[in-house]
Design brief:
- The protein is of the alpha+beta class.
- It folds into 2 domains: 153 residues, Ribosomal Protein S5, domain 2 (2-Layer Sandwich), CATH 3.30.230; 127 residues, 2-Layer Sandwich (Alpha-Beta Plaits).
- It has 9 helices and 11 strands.
- Strands 1, 2, 3, 4, 5, 6 and 11 form a 7-stranded antiparallel sheet that branches. A 4-stranded antiparallel sheet has the order 8-9-7-10.
- α1 packs across α3.
- It starts with a strand and ends with a strand.
- 48% of the residues are buried.
- The protein binds (3R)-3-hydroxy-3-methyl-5-(phosphonooxy)pentanoic acid.
- (3R)-3-hydroxy-3-methyl-5-(phosphonooxy)pentanoic acid (PMV) binds next to α4 and α5.
- The site of (3R)-3-hydroxy-3-methyl-5-(phosphonooxy)pentanoic acid (PMV) has 15 residues, from α4 and α5.
């Protein structure tokens, strides 16, 4: 058995989504293959893998993950792996899988939103706490609820660039939380991000790449105020602005990846090559996680 688990990007609204504001995410055409292979000795894994295996009562198993995408890139690796292990072992309806994977991720990290696990499970464009789309399901935790819907629209061409260093979701979410608890300043930023997301959803529904790009630039500027961008991210984002319709960091930040909506693809790729970074020339996909026997 092999599970194909898609990476995801957040187009708009990361961090704000933790506080219940809307966000738009999507699976991309980059899949990790996840295998569970019987092994003689109990291997040691990172806490979220360990917790998933304990939940399933699995001891002597080797979790093999095949992907070209570095972990800590803000592309949903931990959620993908948790979901991939669960689906290898059991049959799940999409909603049940999203819930179970989120519970395990939340219990390990102690914070965060169910946006990653839901996107990976549902596939396609997923809107969190928005007013449009086809309703999916709702997840609640600690008084915050997230309502999900799917946005049926055309896939979007996207260049994803790894900034060269890992970002820790836990650290970055905690950093933003400090700002958030300090006063209205961070809440105003979150509100603005929420508005950008709502406008972004309308642009995505119309496949208006110029508008999507413009709003990504605005969203990035707001995120930057929290100090979660880095010099390499800024370098990539500025190339993305010059040769794409727009670009921004995606996910928690502090490292990780940048997404670019390409305009002049040839020049964009040439410029990125000069930076010597890992680049994925891809697009969003309608597919979510699935399994197949090999
Ligand atoms: O970096 P990732 O893929 O774990 O995404 C984090 C998105 C945040 O909004 C920053 C946190 C969350 O759990 O929603």
């Amino acid at each position: 058995m092999v599970v194909y688990s898609p990476h995801k990007v957040i187009l708009f609204g990361e961090h704000a989504v933790v506080y219940g504001y809307p966000a738009l995410s999507a699976t991309v055409d980059l899949f990790a293959k996840i295998y569970l292979i019987p092994s003689r000795s109990g291997l040691q894994y990172t806490p979220f893998v360990q917790r998933t295996l304990s939940f399933l009562g699995l001891n002597n198993v080797y979790v093999k993950v095949e992907t070209n995408v570095p972990s800590g890139s803000g592309l949903g690796t931990s959620s993908m792996i948790i979901s991939g292990i669960l689906l290898n072992e059991k049959d799940y309806q999409k909603e049940a899988l999203a819930n179970e994977a989120f519970r395990i991720e939340y219990e390990t990290q102690g914070l965060g939103s169910p946006i990653d696990t839901t996107t990976i499970s549902a596939g396609g464009f997923v809107l969190t706490n928005g007013k449009v789309g086809v309703p999916l399901w709702k997840i609640e935790r600690n008084g915050i609820s997230w309502n999900f819907s799917t946005i049926p629209t055309r896939n979007l061409e996207m260049v994803i660039v790894y900034s060269g260093s890992k970002g820790s979701t836990r650290e970055q979410v905690a950093k933003v939380k400090k700002f958030y608890e300090r006063g209205s300043f961070a809440k105003d930023i979150m509100k603005r991000i929420g508005n950008i997301t709502e406008e972004g959803v309308r642009a995505v529904m119309k496949s208006d790449v110029a508008k999507i790009g413009e709003l990504m630039i605005e969203n990035h500027s707001e995120l930057k105020i929290f100090g979660i961008s880095t010099d390499p991210i800024e370098k990539i984002v500025s190339i993305g602005r010059e040769y794409g319709y727009g670009s921004k960091l995606t996910g928690a930040g502090g490292g990780g990846a940048v997404i670019i909506i390409p305009r002049d693809k040839e020049k964009l790729m040439k410029k990125l090559k000069e930076l010597n970074v890992i680049v994925f020339d891809t697009s969003t996909t309608g597919a979510g996680i699935f399994k197949r026997s090999e």
